[in-house]
Here is the input.
Amino acid sequence: AAETISRLGAQVLITGHCGPKAFQTLEAAAIDVIPGAEGCTIAQALEKYKSGQLKPKHSSDVSGHWQ
Here is the structure.
């Protein structure tokens, strides 16, 4: 999924959580990862991002599936 997001030309990914492999792929593609949107609608997540309630992270916020 992270590779698809990169191929589509995204600059920002607003998400609930991001594991280490996805984070590494997104970071390599210079895509800002904005976790913390779990339970939000798209409109709510965008509003939180625009208002500064959601901010980019510089590492994954959950462990990998197989760790």
Q: What stands out?
A: The chain has three helices and two strands. The longest strand covers residues 12-14. The mean pLDDT is 89.
